[in-house]
Amino acid sequence: MRASLRRPAALLVALVTVLPLSACGLFGSDADPQDAANQFVAAFAGGDTATASGQTDAPDSARALMDKVRGALKPSTVMAQVTRVDASENNTKATYKLTWDLGRGRLWTYDSAFELRRQDDVWKVHWEPTVLHPKLAVQQTIAVQDAEAQPAPVLDRDGEPVLQPERVVSVLFEPEKAGDANAIAGELAKALSGIDASITTQSILDGAAKAPGQPYQVVALRDGDYQKVRSLIYELQGVRFTASSRLLAVDRKLAPTLLPNLRKVVEEQVQGKAGWRVYTVDSAGAEGEELYAKAAEPAKAVQLALSKKAQNAAQAAIAGEATPSMVVAIQPSTGEVLAVAQNEAADKEGALALTGRYPPGSTFKIVTATEAVASGKATADTPLGCPGTTVIDGREIPNSGKFDKGVIPLRNAFAFSCNTTFAELALAMGPDDLTDMAKKLGLGVDFVVPGVTTITGSVPPAAGKTERAEDGFGQGKVVASPFGMAVVAASVASGSVPKPVLVRGVETKSDAVGDPVPSAALESVRGMMAEVVASGTATALKPYGDVRGKTGTAQFGDGTHSHGWFVGYRGDVAFAVLLTDVGQSGTAVQAAGRFLAALG
C-alpha cells in the first residue's frame, strides 16, 4: 500500500511505501524492518532530519550530512519510495528510489540502499554516506551547479546578426566600503566618462545616495569597453564587478529606438534551456565525482523581418537632416517591416516613425483618388478643373504657389498635386467616405505589433464642407504616422492591407479593415502614382526604376511651416519618407532617392 507522510506546508513532501504499523510503536520490539525502512525514508524526504537521523545508529553524523546535502541542493520537493526489503534475522538491506526536485524543471532520480541492523529488538539504519547516494564517501557532501545556455543570436531577414549575446560587466559602487567615497567616485567618473559622457562624480554619488546600503550600478559595459578601463578601475576600493551574458545590438547605431523593444520580445526565445550537474565535494571544497549532468540546450536563432541593408539605407538617407526625419519601409507581399529609421533629432523625441501624428498633406490624395475612382465619381481620365484657387464656404483653398492648370485629367491633377481638384472631389463625398476608404487602405487601423507601439493615424468623419474639402488634400483633421502611410503605400501595391510583422513567427493582430478596394480602382491609382514620377512632382526619382508614389507638403501650426513627405513603392518595397519642418516636399523626394539608390 502506498501512503504519504505530509508535514506542514513549509516542509517538503515524501511519497513512500508504508505497511501497516504494529500497535507497539514504530521501532519497538514488534516493528519489522519494512516499517523501519519506510519511516526513515519518509522522515528524510519530508525534511525532518532530526527524526530521520534518530532512526540511525549514528544520529549526529547522519543529521550533519543530511543537513549539508539538503542545504546544498535546496530542493523544492523530495520524493522517496522503498522498493525492496531483503530481511534476515539481524541484518536487512533496503533499496529505495529517491527523486530530488530542484526547481526550474530539474529532477534528479536515482536508486540507493542502506542496511538495517537489529539492536536490542529495535531496527536501526546503519549509517554510511552511501545511504544518501551510493557514490558518496566519508568526508564528502554534494553540490549542484547550473550551466547556462548561451543565448542564440537574432538575425535579420537575410541571416545577418542584428542582436547577439555578449559578455557584459556591471560596475558596482559601494560608498560605505570606499573609504574616501568622493575620491573613488571621481576616479570612476574620470575612467568611464569617455565611454558614457553622462557619468560624472556627482551622478555616481547621487545614484548611490538613492539606495543607501545597496551597491549602486554605475554602468554596464560591453566586455570590449570594460577591458579598455579595467586597469583604471579594477583595484579601486569599494568597487566590485559582476558579469553576465546579454543580448546586444551588433551595431549600436542600427535602429537604436527599435531594437531595444524587439529585444524584449525575443529574449525568452533565444535563452535556450539551462543545463545542470550534481557532483561530490570533499571537506576542502574540491570537486570529486560527477553524479549527474544534463547539458544545456541552446535555442534556435530568431529571425526578424527587418533588413539590415534597408535599415542602413534608410538611416543614411536622413542622417544629415537637421529636423526630426523618418523612413519606414514595408514589404507589401508579406507585411514584413524592412526598416524603421529615424535621425538623431527624431530619436530624442521617441519612436516618431511608428507613433508620430502629422498632417499627411497631399500624400493623402492617394486615399481621395482611390475613393473617387472606386465610387464612380471619376476615372483617371475624367477632365476636372485645376484652378489656382477655389473658395469653399468662404474658405480660399489654393494650389501651391497658386498654379493654374485649367481643366486636366484626374491623373494629371494627381501628378501635379492640385489641391483645388481634390478639395472639390472630397466635397462631393459623404462625411464618412474618406474615413472608410482610409481604413480600407490601413490608415486608422489599430495594429497590435508585439514589442512596439504603433499608430497608423486618424481620419475622423467630416460633416462640414470646409473640413471635408481640406481632408481631401490631407490638411483637415487627418493625421498619419510614417508607419501608417507606409501601410497605405503597401496596401495600394499589394491590393489588400498587410499585417505588419517585425519578428517572424510572432503574430500581429488588428481590428477590421473593411471590404477590399476593387482591384480596378487600385490599378488606376497605381497608374496615377507612376505619373507623379514620370511627369509630376517627383521626377527626380526617375533614375531609380519603376517608382510610384505621391509627394506631400503638409502645413502645420500657424500655416507658415510645412513638413515634406514622399510616400510610394518600388517593386516589393513600399515606404514613407517624412522630413519635418523643411518647407516643401522636394527635400523628402531627394531623401527617397538616396534610400532607393542605396537599396540598389
UniProtKB/TrEMBL annotation:
Residues 33-138 form the NTF2-like N-terminal transpeptidase domain. The keyword Ribonucleoprotein does not apply. It comes from the Bacteria. This is Penicillin-binding protein. Residues 1-23 form the signal peptide. Pfam families: MecA_N, Transpeptidase. It comes from Actinokineospora globicatena. Residues 326-589 form the Penicillin-binding protein transpeptidase domain. GO terms for cellular component: plasma membrane. One of its GO terms (molecular function) is penicillin binding. PANTHER family: PENICILLIN-BINDING PROTEIN 4B (PTHR30627:SF24), PEPTIDOGLYCAN D,D-TRANSPEPTIDASE (PTHR30627). Keywords: Signal. Gene3D superfamilies: DD-peptidase/beta-lactamase superfamily. The keyword Oxidoreductase does not apply. One of its GO terms (biological process) is cell wall organization.
